[in-house]
Design a protein that fits this description.
By secondary structure, this protein is of the alpha/beta class. It has two domains: about 5-255 and about 460-480, Aldehyde Dehydrogenase, Chain A, domain 1 (3-Layer(aba) Sandwich); about 260-440, Aldehyde Dehydrogenase, Chain A, domain 2 (3-Layer(aba) Sandwich), CATH 3.40.309.10. It has helices spanning about 50-65, 70-85, 90-100, 105-125, 160-175, 185-200, 215-225, 235-245, 270-285, 300-315, 335-350, 380-385, 400-410, 425-435; strands at about 15, 20, 30, 40-45, 130, 140-145, 150-155, 175-180, 205-210, 225-235, 250-255, 260-265, 295-300, 355, 370-375, 390-400, 415-420, 440, 460, 475-480. A seven-stranded mixed sheet has the order 14-15-16-13-12-17-18, with helices on both faces. A six-stranded mixed sheet has the order 9-8-7-10-11-19, with helices on both faces. Helix 4 (about 105-125) runs parallel beside helix 5. The chain is globular and about 70 Å long. It starts with 13 loop residues before the first strand and ends with a strand. The mean pLDDT is about 95. The structure holds adenosine-5'-diphosphate (ADP). Adenosine-5'-diphosphate binds near residues 154 and 181. Adenosine-5'-diphosphate binds next to helix 7 and helix 8. Belongs to the aldehyde dehydrogenase family.
């Protein structure tokens, strides 16, 4: 069991229309602690009719929530933000228990999640329109922005809190209402956000959390004509399915999908800074983020020195349950995640790569895996094509700038990319040539609430966070008035 300062945050029911409900047929989903394999709680496996009820409640609530002044919505969202900060330790405890990330990282996520609510509580008041000079003297042209309506969110397990607030905060700020379906592995954090939403005064139906079979719930949400917008974070594969399911109702979509981030180190880079950036971007959340560097490309002149420094640091990364002090790498989310990491390492080794550090399941057992560094990696290996989503750093060697840019872009993904160089001219050439939605230069950490997060190519559609983020929940209305 998870110990909380405020035990009220632990819920085993869903938040629908201001009530905490179980599934009519009493069906449940078990939630496991990935560090121990223990079942820590159950949540309802709602029936389609329960989800339909949530959509109907969101529709009813939209009528009043969207009519509130932006200032009023902002005040309520501000309170939600404050409650998240006040309860950050409990949110962290829930996250570590159901997701596995170390407590310090989980606390960091709680505050990161709250930062989106703070940011969009402020942006709520800045949804500006436009006036456009008409082509004739007898007309006036006004552009106004209005909330899209009822929105749905389907979110992943790797960031149980932040992936929800990054969608719900701009939606609610814009005047939309939202039904959230969290990942089945991490519903407890989502339900705790629901408790805090109620406490903040967010009215019934405005923010709802439904748990259940992903396909069934996703089916109801995408088929509904009432749901005007779907925001999804998860795999490209599921993103494609949801996009297809949304086609009959021409839903608006925001999709934050997979990545295959290149991390490029040129000969002229500050190698210590590059190693530090690589550790931060590769091993955060045990490598389970869509912006984690997946491929490390190091120029020939710096290759050996970089590998030596990286290997030394990776050997020092402590592995264990996220609740233990000083642990930096928690368990992977489940057995499938471990199998994928193993498959990528085996494939690379069979094709000639060398394991410099790690390479195996950790002696702790369960889903713990040794932080790993591979050298001699080539574009022919699986690690070059697929997102590993684990603590494995494959280090590729390259000779020229043109060559590495071509290798970095040789993927259907285009989420985040990183490069290290001290050369200003090269910096501009490389940032312009990389086909990615986000590029970090001399840093491995780029996410924050003020900047637009999102990908190009098959990494998705739309942007989250920043002043662009609220546009995803607004429609542009053109108003033309004839005055002659
Ligand atoms: P991951 O590989 O990170 O688990 P997924 O894309 O499988 O990513 O899952 C992300 C979210 O999508 C989760 O909430 C999951 O329950 C949901 N999901 C998975 N498959 C479907 C589906 N067919 N329809 C709707 N939602 C789905």
């Amino acid at each position: 069991m998870v110990k909380l300062k405020n035990p009220d945050l632990l819920r085993d029911r869903c938040l629908v229309d201001g009530k905490w409900i179980s599934a009519g047929n009493a069906k449940v989903i078990e939630v496991e602690n990935p560090a121990t394999g223990d079942v820590i709680a159950t949540v309802p496996s709602l029936a389609a009719t329960d989800v339909e009820q949530a959509v109907a409640a969101a529709n009813t609530a939209f009528a009043t929530w969207s009519k509130k002044s932006a200032k009023d919505r902002a005040a309520i969202l501000r309170r939600w933000f404050e409650l998240m900060v006040e309860n950050a330790d409990d949110l962290a405890a829930l996250m570590t228990t159901e997701q596995g990330k170390p407590l310090a990282e989980a606390r960091g996520e709680a505050l990161y999640a709250a930062s989106f609510v703070e940011w969009f509580s402020e942006e709520a008041k800045r949804v500006y329109g436009d006036t456009i000079p008409a082509p004739t003297t007898d007309k006036r042209i006004i552009i106004m922005k209005q909330p899209i309506g009822v929105c749905a969110a389907i979110t992943p397990w790797n960031f149980p809190a932040a992936m929800i607030t990054r969608k719900a905060a701009p939606a609610l700020a814009a005047g939309c209402t939202m039904v959230v379906k969290p990942a089945e592995q991490t519903p407890l954090t989502a339900l705790a956000l629901g408790v805090l939403a109620e406490q903040a005064g967010i009215p019934a139906g405005v923010f709802q959390v439904v748990t259940g079979d992903a396909r069934d719930v996703g089916g109801v949400l995408t088929a509904s004509d009432t749901v005007r917008k779907l925001s999804f974070t998860g795999s490209t594969e599921v993103g494609r399915i949801l996009m297809a399911q949304s086609a009959p109702t021409i839903k608006k979509l925001s999709l934050e999908l997979g990545g295959n981030a290149p991390f490029i180190v040129f000969d002229d880079a500050d190698l210590d800074a590059a190693v530090e950036g690589a550790i931060a971007s590769k091993y955060r959340n045990a490598g389970q983020t869509c912006v984690c560097s997946n491929r490390l490309y190091v120029q020939a002149g710096a290759y050996d020195a970089f590998v030596e420094k990286l290997a030394a640091k990776v050997r020092d990364l402590s592995v264990g349950a996220g609740t233990q002090n000083d642990v930096l790498i928690g368990p992977l989310i489940d057995a499938d995640a471990v199998a994928k990491v193993e498959e990528h390492i085996t494939d690379a080794v069979e094709k000639g790569a060398k394991v410099v550090v790690g390479g195996q399941r950790h002696s702790l057992g369960g889903t713990f895996f040794e932080p790993t560094v591979l050298t001699g990696v080539t574009q022919a290996m699986k690690v070059a094509r697929e997102e590993t989503f684990g603590p494995v750093a494959p280090v590729f060697r390259f000779d020229t700038e043109d060559q590495v840019v071509a290798m970095a872009n040789d993927t259907e993904f285009g989420l985040a990319a990183y490069f290290y160089t001290e050369d200003v001219r090269r910096t501009w050439r490389v940032v312009e040539a990389l086909e990615y939605g986000m590029v970090g230069h001399n840093t491995g950490m780029i996410s924050n609430e003020v900047a637009p997060f999102g990908g190009v190519k098959q990494s998705g559609l739309g942007r989250e966070g920043s002043h662009y983020g609220i546009d995803e929940y607004l429609e542009v209305k053109y108003f033309c008035s004839a005055i002659a």
